[in-house]
């Protein structure tokens, strides 16, 4: 009987792992770095709940970080326009179709979360970056939707 139960659990575990909402997390630092150069969304996720943390101590005005998702070939242009958007907009242009997802801007010791759909993102060449002025050269990575 115990073997049978175990077999059933093994059978259903993959189903449980494919929950419709999936969690991702990434840290950022006073050294102007993200903790990961690549984030992968497993297949089966309809939405992603992403948490950005800032494990440093510097305030938002000096070392602010956010997490912005963009198609890779639009990253450079969006990074320039994000600086122009200014601190009042958390360095993210409003009503801009290139912004696929974006968190709030946070400072040391803070964290923020967003939830977004990945249904339309599968198979696209995507990148994430921090849009704080001067950060995107170091603070960027690949975002893969399996
Ligand atoms: Zn940053």
How would you concisely characterize the structure shown here?
This protein has 146 residues and is an alpha/beta fold. Helix content is 21%, strand content 29%.
Descriptive overview:
With 146 residues, the chain is α/β, with parallel strands linked by helices. It is built from 3 helices and 8 strands. The strands form 2 sheets. A 5-stranded mixed sheet has the order 2-8-7-4-5, with helices on one face. A 3-stranded mixed sheet has the order 1-3-6, with no helix packed on it. The chain binds zinc ion (ZN).
- Helix coverage percent: 10-25%
Number of E-state strands? 8
Q: Beta-sheet strand percentage?
A: 25-35%
End-to-end separation: 37 Å
- Helix tally equals 3
Topology:
Layout: H1 2-17, E1 21-28, E2 38-41, E3 47-54, H2 60-63, E4 68-71, H3 75-85, E5 101-102, E6 111-117, E7 126-129, E8 140-145
Parallel strand pairs: 1-3, 2-8
Antiparallel strand pairs: 3-6, 4-5, 4-7, 7-8
The site of zinc ion has 6 residues, from loops.
Protein traits:
globular, 3 helices, binds zinc ion, alpha/beta, 146 residues
């Amino acid at each position: 009987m115990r073997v049978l139960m175990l077999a059933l659990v093994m059978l259903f575990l993959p189903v449980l792992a494919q929950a419709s909402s999936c969690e991702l997390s990434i840290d950022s630092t006073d050294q102007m770095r993200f903790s990961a150069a690549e984030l992968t969304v497993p297949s089966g996720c309809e939405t992603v709940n992403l948490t950005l943390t800032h494990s440093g101590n510097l305030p938002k005005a000096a070392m602010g970080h956010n997490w912005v998702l963009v198609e890779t070939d639009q990253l450079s242009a969006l990074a320039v326009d994000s600086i122009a958007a200014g601190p009042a907009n958390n360095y993210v242009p409003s009503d801009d179709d290139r912004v696929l997802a974006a968190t709030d801007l946070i400072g040391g010791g803070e964290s923020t979360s967003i939830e977004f759909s990945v249904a339309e993102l599968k198979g696209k060449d995507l990148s994430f970056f921090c849009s704080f002025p001067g950060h995107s050269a170091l603070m960027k990575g690949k975002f893969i939707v399996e």
